[in-house]
Amino acid sequence: FIKSLIISLIIDSLKEGIYKLKNNHAIKRTIAKIDKKYKDIENLPQTLEKWLSDKNVQNKLEEFIKGSRDINIEDLAITLVKDSEFYFGDESPEKSIEIIKSFFSILNDEYLKSKEGITIISHRQEILAKEFRDEEKTTQRMIKDSHVETMKAFSGLSSQFSLDDYKDKVQSLYTKRIDDAREILKAGKIKTAKDLFEKFLSDLSKEQDVPKELFFRTWTNLGCCELELGQIKEATVHFELAHNILPENDKGIANMVTAMQLRKDYSAGLEYVNELLKKKPQYIHGICVKASLLTEMGKFDEAIDLFKDKDGNFNNTILNDAQGCYTLGFVFYERKDYKNAQKFLKKAINLDSSNPGFFLLLGLSICFPLLQKRTLHWLIPEQEITKLKNAEQFLSQAYEILQEQENDEKLENVLINRSSVRIALNNLDDAIN
After folding, report:
1. Which alpha helices (DSSP H) does 187-249 contain, by range?
2. Tens-place pLDDT, residues 218-244
């Protein structure tokens, strides 16, 4: 259902023309990711754009959707490569199929993060919830209408089957709903995600024998929403509630560390995170929350050492993680080591170019030391003007992403800082706009 609708949306976008799409459009983001994945193949983005713009390809795509009730990405890739001649010089048809399969797999995920995808998910959630409620009503009615003597004879067995079936349905339904809402949260639709998680709590409270994990995931994600929205008190309470439900869960302990940091109870936070990292020393999320805690305490060297191996070199495993790179960049930024901050923030963006916070902090790490000088525009050296223009570009990229999201506080932060850069560059009209 969802894949069919998404591919229909893709066709509509392709017919409008790829060149008209914004850089943060799902198709554009997917092409960029494919280019990184197959970087040994020259001119892959241009070839993909040209191929996707071909009317024959679009027609084949439509034909496939109409003839297939369930969209199988592998069959789709084989069909398109075979019928639309998607080849790269010496590349084999098998390699071409692999590329197209990867393209549609990534595109499916990217579209689910887009405005259209979020609408589809929200609509689908309501359908699934209604189907579940209707099925439960039907089941209960059938049980009621059954013969009394038969129910007596098989009451124990029947009720056990009914309970197990009910539990499985609750687990399946809410896991899917939480997963979908989590994708909405990742896409930056914070308020929409928050509303969904609050609805889940309300719905879960009406169910019986709910697995603890469902409440844990809901409270955890609700805490993440509140934290993004700057609701510190609410975020703290939600993280603590989640930890109380599953006190041994790694993510729950890491979020408890964040809660202790928000309460300024640093010693308790260190106690939790040290115990966690003793058990799992390479747990990246745990390393990041400890680094954040130590940074707020002013212990920058200790925070930086968390990202190093026993030989004193930066750990490649951690630095292959976008959040790991961002956190290390943040530590250097707070330490006022802007050069190293920029180095690791750029690496974070290379690993994940969809997070506006990465672009925002990179822009700030470039412009902040220059703006502090308060130099008049005509006295700023050419080299510094170039750096300020780079900072403006990164802040504009953050703004472009945030326009599609629901984070007013972060958007305001970007606009204020971008205006400051534009004033320094003497672009007063742009600064006012």
Report:
1. 190-204, 212-228, 232-245
2. 999 999 999 999 899 899 999 998 998
